[in-house]
Amino acid sequence: xxxxxxxSIENITLNDCILHYQITEKLxxxxxxxxxxxxxxxxxxxxxxxxxxxxxxxIYLKRYRMKNNKIEKNEINVNFDINDFRLGTFNEINxxxxxxxxxxxxxxxxxxxTNLKNKGKWVGIDDNLVFPSDEQNxxxxxxxxxxxxxxxxxx
Length: 155
Known about the structure:
The protein is mainly β.
């Protein structure tokens, strides 16, 4: 089943990205695979699926793509839950964000920095600097990786 993001660019969510990642995709001409049954190269369809969710969930946001033989960076801001992330149809599993990895700059140059939740408080880490941060500093277009962990069940 095809899934296309039809929302405005300002309203793209992490779950939208994950649904888009799971669409069936036809490989392009030139990427055929040899079939041992018919002994010919065949065009192939691929589909990514999520079958179970781990204790720690690391999500990489694909920020680069080829366009006109040039690599360009996608800086669309993706909205994601910080304290209560539930992945698609896995609504019974609840995750909390504990870190982000961010990249400013372009494909061939730039700078990495991170945000990390330490003892319940957010801190920013940039080279050898560690400074207080907050949740507003997490939702930025430079975010490239999200690090989640399952929330502990409380009874």
